[in-house]
Design goal:
Strand content: 35-45%
Radius of gyration: 16 Å
Number of helices: 2
Order of helices and strands: HEEEEHEEEE
Distance between the termini: 22 Å
Largest sheet: 8 strands, antiparallel
Mean pLDDT: 88
Number of strands: 8
Helix content: under 10%
Oligomer: single chain
Low-confidence stretches: none
Strand order of the largest sheet: 1-2-3-4-5-6-7-8
Structural class: mainly beta
């Protein structure tokens, strides 16, 4: 159910250039539309999500995919795609993050280890106007026959300086 957004390729969006109107023309009305504040600037957040029974990457579960888009002054300043569908899941091996060294390794090494990112942020989603962030995210929901849903998510963010050197590595993991 919902609007299925396919995994973006490197030519799908141009950060700082793709417009709010281009995204809504392509995908229609989002599942969620709201305003948030980041670095004291209003950002328009759109979320398109899709779920189905079966076909999930994790054993005995359904699958889904979703994309978050962030706009400032009508221009795309960030997006993040996540899928638990077997054909395009975004699961990643978080233990490999120890192979990336802050202030030494660059964007090319991150991509060599983790593949193309499934999201990117620039200012004002991130703090520094000269930096960008590459996002790797994965989540899924288990809906039992009886009982509460269980949600699992993990996200790995590499912040890159103006020379594409990794300056920050953030990893979060949640189960609820």
């Amino acid at each position: 159910m919902g609007t299925s957004v396919l995994r973006p390729d490197s030519n799908s969006y141009v950060i700082g250039s793709t417009t709010y109107q281009e995204i809504t023309d392509k995908y229609g009305n989002p599942s969620i539309s709201r305003e948030i504040i980041s670095n004291e600037i209003k950002i328009k957040h759109l979320y398109y999500g899709f779920g189905q029974l079966g076909g999930g990457h994790e054993k005995d579960m359904g699958g889904g995919r979703g994309t978050n888009y962030y706009f400032s002054e009508g221009k795309l300043v960030g997006y993040k795609f996540s899928s638990s569908l077997e054909e395009d899941h975004t699961d990643f091996d978080e233990s490999l993050r120890s192979q990336i060294r802050k202030n030494v390794d660059d964007r090319n090494k991150v991509i060599a280890i983790f593949g193309p990112p499934n999201g990117e942020y620039i200012y004002p989603v991130i703090e520094n106007k000269n930096h960008k962030a590459h996002i790797y995210s994965y989540s899924y929901v288990i809906v039992p026959f009886i009982g509460k849903n269980k949600r699992f998510s993990k996200e790995l963010v590499f912040t890159l300086d103006e020379n594409n050197i990794v300056i920050e590595i953030e990893f979060t993991k949640q189960t609820n």
